[in-house]
Write a structure and sequence with these properties.
With 156 residues, this protein is α+β, with helices and mostly antiparallel strands. The chain is built from six helices and eight strands. A hairpin with a 6-residue loop joins strand 5 and strand 6. GO terms for molecular function: coenzyme F420 binding; oxidoreductase activity, acting on the CH-CH group of donors.
Length: 156
């Protein structure tokens, strides 16, 4: 069995910079859940923050479902992932400019963030912010699992 990360470790992992995959159910049940890559922010013990276009399918489904999940992973060995799921606790409309700036700086260098923010200024009008309180956590850390199979002769 693959070991799960402990509470502090999984929260630090989620707080690290990863592109997340947001999942939200279509409450009408007419299609599979929507899964899309997103930028997000998280600080241990706080809420997950995502932003999207007000008129997007993602925003509509988030409002209808009232909850979502987010999965983040390491894409290199040893693989690890954290998945959280919980209720939407607030929707900020219009988007908070400081939150948007913090998100850009999280994913881009200072110069790139400045250029990105200038080039996508309309998002301050068109986008909204969703906050989610993590209720359910899933995680795995394959490093410990892989070590079991390495043995005294080294990795196989």
């Amino acid at each position: 069995m693959v070991p799960a990360m402990q509470g502090d470790e999984r929260e630090r992992f989620l707080a690290d910079t990863h592109v997340g995959v947001l999942g939200v159910t279509d409450p009408r049940g007419v299609r599979a859940p929507l899964l899309v890559p997103v930028w997000y922010r998280y600080e241990p013990g706080k809420e997950v923050v995502v932003q999207t276009g007000r008129a997007s399918l993602k925003a509509r489904l988030l409002k209808e479902a009232g909850r979502f999940s987010l999965c983040v992973q390491d894409e290199t060995a040893p693989y690890r992932y954290v998945s959280v799921e919980g209720p939407v606790t607030s929707v900020a409309d219009p988007m908070d400019a400081a939150e948007r700036e913090a998100m850009a700086h999280r994913y881009l260098g200072a110069a790139e963030a400045r250029d990105y923010l200038a080039g996508t200024r309309d998002q301050l009008i068109d986008d909204i912010t969703f906050r989610m309180r993590p209720e359910r956590w899933r995680s795995a850390d394959f490093a410990a699992f892989a070590a079991e199979f390495a043995g005294a002769d080294g990795p196989r």
